[in-house]
Amino acid sequence: MSKNWRPATKLVHGGTLRSQYGETSEAIFLTQGFVYENSAAAEARFKGETDGFIYARYGSPTNDMFEKRMCLLENAEDARATASGMAAVTAAILCQLKAGDHIVAARALFGSCRWVVETLAPKYGIECTLIDGKDLANWEKAIRPTTKVFFLESPTNPTLEVVDLEGVAKLANQVGAKVVVDNVFATPLFQKPLELGAHIVVYSATKHIDGQGRCLGGVVLSDKEWIDANLHDYFRHSGPAMSPFNAWVLLKGLETMALRVKQQTENATKVADFLAGHSAVAKVIYPGRKDHPQADIIARQMTGGSTLVAFELKGGKNAAFSVQDGLDVVMISNNLGDAKSLITHPATTTHKNLTEDARVELGISPGLLRLSAGIEDADDLIEDFDRALSKIGK
Question: The domain containing residue 162 runs over which residues?
Answer without folding.
Answer: 7-252
